[in-house]
Amino acid sequence: MTENEKKLLQAKHRLEEAQMRDRQKEQKTRTRRLIQEGAILEKALPQTTQMTLEQLENFLCEVFKPIR
After folding, report:
1. Can you tell me the distance from the alpha carbon of 15 to that of 19, in angstroms, rounded to the nearest whole number?
2. In degrees to the nearest 10, what's the CA dihedral of 31, 37, 42, 43?
3. Max alpha carbon distance in the chain (Å)?
4. What is the rounded distance in angstroms from the CA atom of residue 19 to the CA atom of residue 32?
5. How many CB atoms lie within 10 A of CB 39?
6. How far apart are CA 26 and CA 30, in angstroms?
7. Which residues, at least 6 apart from 59, have a Cβ–Cβ distance to it below 8 Å?
8. How far apart are CA 4 and CA 10, in angstroms?
9. Distance in angstroms (rounded) separating the CA atoms of residues 68 and 53
10. Domain of life, per the record (predicted)?
11. How far apart are CA 13 and CA 9, in angstroms?
12. pTM
């Protein structure tokens, strides 16, 4: 393997690592946002804490159903 090939491979690995870090950062940001939104939902509608996920989904779909 030539010196240029080694440098190219190293650059490729650095790029892949940077992309992986970006994906992880985006995932952590999304997770934090979802947790915060869930907390707001529970605070605004405390009865939702006793619902299953299916019940919650049905409740929210019914409440926010588009008016025709």
Report:
1. 6
2. 130
3. 68
4. 20
5. 10
6. 6
7. 48, 51
8. 10
9. 26
10. Bacteria
11. 6
12. 0.73
CA 45-34-42 angle, to 5 degrees, is 15
**Alpha carbon distance 59, 10 (integer Å):** 52
Q: Six-digit token pair at 36?
A: 């915060």
Cα separations (Å) of 44 from 5, 32, 40, 53? 58, 18, 6, 17
Q: State CA 7 to chain mean position distance.
A: 34
Distance CA 64, CA 34 (A): 19
Which residue's entry shows tokens 């393997």? 1
The pLDDT tens digits of the residues spanning 6-27 come to: 999 999 999 999 999 999 999 9
Residue 27 in tokens = 């995932």
Burial class (CB in 10 A: 0-12, 13-18, 19+), 60: middle
